[in-house]
């Protein structure tokens, strides 16, 4: 994000946000600017959002900065959502004595950035969340505010926290301390959602009284200031439904930019314990993650789980009290399922806050301006994004269910329980496009109409917005009968594949993770039994160094293969290869079309691996693999098979015979992989060995074999579908980085008539693209000639970024910034430019949203964005 006084529009997680006055100093005593505040919010978003999501946010704003100790800045509390707020900010209504107030909900990085833009430095939230019906749920956490009186301080608060901990543990709760960034400590513990705010307040009050009775010289439970000298107040009142507490990871409006930061109990024992500033918090989180990450249970799914028996239905039935951390950052995915239950209907499900908010639509999405009924149903688990199969007769929703269309959506408006306006982008051959195609995008509004009766209260209407279109609504059965085609990815079976009651259940998918880039729905259909279903997005690794491998954890070390990621779907001999961006690449690699022969003792599996091309010495060569990209003609594909044959390196398993394995540990999944894959059955398939925790030996072997580096994986970790995780850490020998190609300069001399160099950009502060330099070495003359023809077709008149130096821009030709390349570089300069970059190749498996920010310049969206 450029530091300029001129307002500018940036994109954050696909949202457009107007930012201004980035050089304004908000913390005069430290010189901290608004730009630095926005950068902090961008980087902290992945760990902060799970604690603020779904909760109405009361804000404390300092438009002119916090001031100094001697001259504090003016601030004001604000509850109502500002009229100037972007339309895409998720919001919820709370009834007050004077009528309802609409609050913003910090559900994503873009909303956090907007709050930073308006100098809402402090974000206060209650201990409860909104449900998808717009109603207040029971609290999912308890909080005790340990507030030191005169003569007491942080050491006394830590002492009281240690006294409270065993009491909460005796209640089956595991507390996490948070140094508040102001004076004291907050203690949080997760709840199962079965008790009201009034119940929890009463328990907290009684706990405070009991500790006061046992430790009268240290603890007080009464808020009278005259009683608090030298003692610590256990403030239990913040568990009231009407009270709020500073959100974990929120900045504070103090003279220094301190933060309310979760701590470990070991950190609380440090004699030098103090409140931390935002730069320290970022370093701390990078080193050890978030101590509160696994606090919340899936109480949003309690209704869903109560209506299903895992032993009787093939549907996914998660533990309603199980950890929700892997789903908290789920992206904007949708699925529409055609449901042949007692009455035919379509189920529209939108990924929102770790679950699928669901409506049953009897007549499907309208194809014109008429309104259709949409009945709000219970929230469904994220696994339902990929579910298809037959629910047995007599069970809830019994009947055949198939995927009519699936994809991603963008929010124009989301008002909890009131109104939702989204644009759905489905598959090219999906139901939204219809049998006549080619459109696959629809903007729809869902509006709660309500009613007097219990059932009427669930009634909404769904409306196709003006200027949008949906293909003629045809059911899957009608398609099969009329021969009007199938929806490809969006259909699970063709006319020969209608599931039998005794058939093995189709895949139930996997828990999808966030992103700030999207949920795990990807892939396109190929012929073959069971091949027409979405593929989960792969888990991604975090870039790091040897020192990031915490010594108290067990790590397995795998080689890092210099290829392209592939999710491999095998079903009764049929093979489908899906890239990490969701493209079906099966046809590009015909030599892998029979790798299904490697399955041993099972009928189907979903595997994770890397497609590589080997050089003359048997080492993976990314430049050689470039010969296999983007071909459509059979002759070109055949030439690639001859000149640059590929191998498939498999390193994980996500599903076996329709049963998800993503919640198994890494060790268990590796054991399963070795069991179900016979690598000797195919000459181009391998299950490479892993090193057992010796990072020095692994790195030495990687260098000796000419590989990129290693990937360290926690042996106790689960597979986080579609998410970047510090449970996997990639350690490279050289510095490589992806970049977006924004232009090119004509060649001279022996490169006359070809590309001389390519101009590159990467996300800078705030996530907006910023110039990163140009690369002119590492590619051949033939490539440069071909690229000129390709790039001339993609030209635009103006530069996509505004910070290109005049010399570099002198004879530049600008292009649409939608292609990604990988370069190797010596280092980064102080002004954020690449030092001596060298071309490595195009990355058609990535989009600009997948490009990591330059080191030291965090993007404003989730860091879970680049390949593993």
Overall description:
With 868 residues, the chain is an alpha+beta fold. It folds into 5 domains: 8-125, DNA primase, PRIM domain, CATH 3.90.920; 141-288, Alpha-Beta Plaits, CATH 3.30.70.3300; 320-490, no CATH class; 540-732, D-amino Acid Aminotransferase, Chain A, domain 1; 735-850, Beta Barrel (OB fold (Dihydrolipoamide Acetyltransferase, E2P)). Helices cover 16% and strands 29% of the residues. The strands form 10 sheets. It has an 8-stranded antiparallel beta barrel with strand order 17-18-19-20-25-24-23-22. Helix 1 (34-52) packs across helix 2. The two termini are 26 Å apart. Mean pLDDT is 83; it is low at 320-330, 479-531 and 857-868. In the C-terminal section; belongs to the ATP-dependent DNA ligase family. In the N-terminal section; belongs to the LigD polymerase family. It holds the Pfam family LigD_N.
The figure for the number of domains is 5
Total number of strands: 43
What is the CATH C-level name of the largest domain?
Answer: Alpha Beta
Fourth-tier CATH superfamily name of the largest domain: DNA ligase/mRNA capping enzyme
Q: What is the CATH architecture annotation of the largest domain? A: 2-Layer Sandwich
Helix content: 10-25%
> How large is the radius of gyration?
28 Å
- The proportion of residues in beta strands is 25-35%
The strand order across the widest sheet is 17-18-19-20-25-24-23-22
Q: What general form does the structure show?
A: globular
Family: In the C-terminal section; belongs to the ATP-dependent DNA ligase family.
Biased composition (Low complexity): 508-519
Biased composition (Basic and acidic residues): 491-505, 842-853
Catalytic activity: ATP + (deoxyribonucleotide)n-3'-hydroxyl + 5'-phospho-(deoxyribonucleotide)m = (deoxyribonucleotide)n+m + AMP + diphosphate
């Amino acid at each position: 994000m450029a530091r300029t006084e001129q307002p500018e529009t940036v994109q954050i997680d696909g949202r457009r946000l107007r930012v201004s006055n980035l050089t304004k100093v908000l913390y005069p005593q430290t010189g901290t600017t608004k730009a630095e505040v926005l950068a902090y919010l961008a980087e902290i978003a992945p760990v902060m959002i799970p604690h603020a999501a779904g909760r109405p946010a009361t804000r404390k704003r300092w438009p002119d900065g916090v001031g100094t100790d001697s001259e504090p800045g003016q601030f004001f509390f604000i509850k109502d959502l500002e009229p100037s707020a972007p339309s895409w900010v998720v919001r919820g209504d709370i009834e007050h004595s004077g009528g309802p107030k609409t609050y913003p909900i910090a559900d994503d990085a873009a909303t956090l950035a907007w709050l930073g833009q308006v100098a809402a430095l402090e974000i206060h939230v209650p201990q409860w969340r909104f449900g998808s019906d717009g109603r207040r749920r029971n609290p999912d956490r308890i909080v005790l505010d340990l507030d030191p009186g005169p003569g007491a301080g942080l050491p006394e608060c830590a002492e009281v926290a240690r006294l409270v901990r065993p009491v909460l543990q005796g209640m089956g709760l595991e507390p996490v301390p948070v140094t508040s960034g102001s004076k004291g400590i907050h203690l949080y513990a997760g709840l199962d959602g079965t008790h009201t705010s009034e119940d929890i307040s009463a328990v907290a009050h009684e706990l405070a009284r009991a500790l006061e009775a046992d430790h009268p010289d240290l603890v007080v439970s009464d808020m009278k200031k005259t009683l608090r000298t030298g003692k610590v107040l256990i403030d239990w009142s913040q568990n009231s439904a009407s009270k709020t507490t500073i959100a974990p990871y929120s900045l504070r409006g103090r003279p220094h930019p301190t933060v309310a930061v979760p701590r470990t109990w070991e950190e609380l024992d440090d004699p030098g314990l103090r409140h931390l500033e935002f730069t320290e918090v970022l370093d701390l989180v990078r080193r050890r993650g978030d101590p509160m990450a696994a606090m919340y249970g899936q109480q949003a799914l309690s209704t869903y789980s109560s209506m299903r028996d895992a032993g009787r239905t093939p549907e996914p039935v998660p533990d309603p009290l199980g950890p929700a951390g892997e789903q908290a950052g789920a992206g904007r995915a949708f699925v529409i399922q055609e449901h042949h239950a007692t009455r035919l209907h379509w189920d529209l499900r939108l990924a929102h806050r770790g679950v699928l908010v669901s409506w049953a639509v009897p007549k499907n999405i309208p194809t014109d301006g008429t309104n259709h009924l949409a009945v709000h149903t219970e929230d469904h688990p994220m696994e339902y994004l990929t579910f298809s199969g037959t629910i047995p007769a007599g069970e809830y929703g019994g009947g055949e269910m198939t995927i009519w269309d699936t994809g991603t959506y963008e929010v124009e408006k989301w008002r909890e329980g009131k109104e939702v306006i989204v644009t759905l982008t489905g598959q090219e051959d999906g139901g939204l496009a219809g049998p006549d195609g080619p459109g696959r995008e629809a903007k729809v509004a869902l509006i709660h109409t309500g009613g007097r009766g219990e059932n009427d209260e669930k009634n909404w209407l769904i409306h196709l917005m003006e200027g949008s279109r949906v293909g003629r609504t045809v059911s899957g059965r009608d398609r099969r009968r009329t021969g009007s085609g199938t929806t490809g990815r969006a259909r699970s079976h063709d006319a020969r594949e209608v599931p039998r009651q005794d058939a093995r259940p189709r895949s139930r998918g996997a828990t999808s993770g966030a992103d700030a880039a999207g949920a795990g729905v990807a892939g396109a259909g190929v012929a073959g039994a069971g091949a027409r279903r979405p593929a989960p997005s792969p888990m991604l690794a975090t870039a790091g160094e040897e020192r990031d491998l915490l010594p108290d954890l067990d790590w397995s070390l795998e080689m890092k293969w210099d290829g392209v990621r592939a999710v491999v779907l095998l079903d009764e001999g049929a093979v489908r290869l899906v890239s990490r961006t969701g493209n079906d690449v099966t046809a590009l690699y015909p030599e892998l079309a029979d790798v299904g022969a490697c399955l041993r003792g099972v009928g189907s599996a979903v595997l994770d691996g890397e497609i590589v091309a080997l050089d003359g010495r048997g080492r993976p060569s990314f430049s050689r693999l470039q010969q296999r990209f983007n071909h459509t003609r059979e002759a070109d594909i055949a030439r690639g098979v001859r000149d640059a044959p590929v191998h498939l390196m498999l390193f994980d398993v996500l599903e076996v015979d329709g049963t998800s394995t993503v919640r198994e540990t890494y060790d268990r999944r590796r054991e399963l992989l070795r069991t179900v894959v016979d690598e000797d059955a195919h000459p181009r398939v391998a299950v490479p060995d892993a090193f057992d925790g010796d990072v020095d030996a692994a790195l030495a072997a990687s260098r000796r074999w000419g590989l990129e580096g290693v990937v360290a994986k926690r042996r106790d970790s689960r597979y986080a579908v579609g998410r970047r995780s510090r449970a996997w850490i990639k350690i490279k020998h050289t510095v490589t980085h992806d970049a977006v190609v924004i232009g090119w300069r004509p060649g001279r001399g022996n490169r006359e008539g070809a590309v001389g160099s390519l101009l590159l950009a990467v996300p800078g502060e705030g996530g907006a693209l910023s110039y990163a330099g140009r690369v002119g070495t590492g590619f051949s003359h033939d490539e440069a000639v071909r690229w000129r023809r390709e790039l001339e077709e993609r030209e635009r008149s103006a530069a996509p970024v505004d910070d290109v130096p005049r010399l570099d821009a002198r004879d530049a030709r600008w292009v649409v910034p939608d292609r990604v390349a990988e370069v190797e570089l010596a280092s980064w300069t102080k002004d954020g430019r690449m030092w001596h970059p060298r071309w490595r190749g195009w990355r058609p498996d990535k989009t600009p949203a997948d490009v990591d920010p330059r080191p030291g310049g965090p993007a404003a969206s989730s860091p879970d964005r680049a390949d593993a």
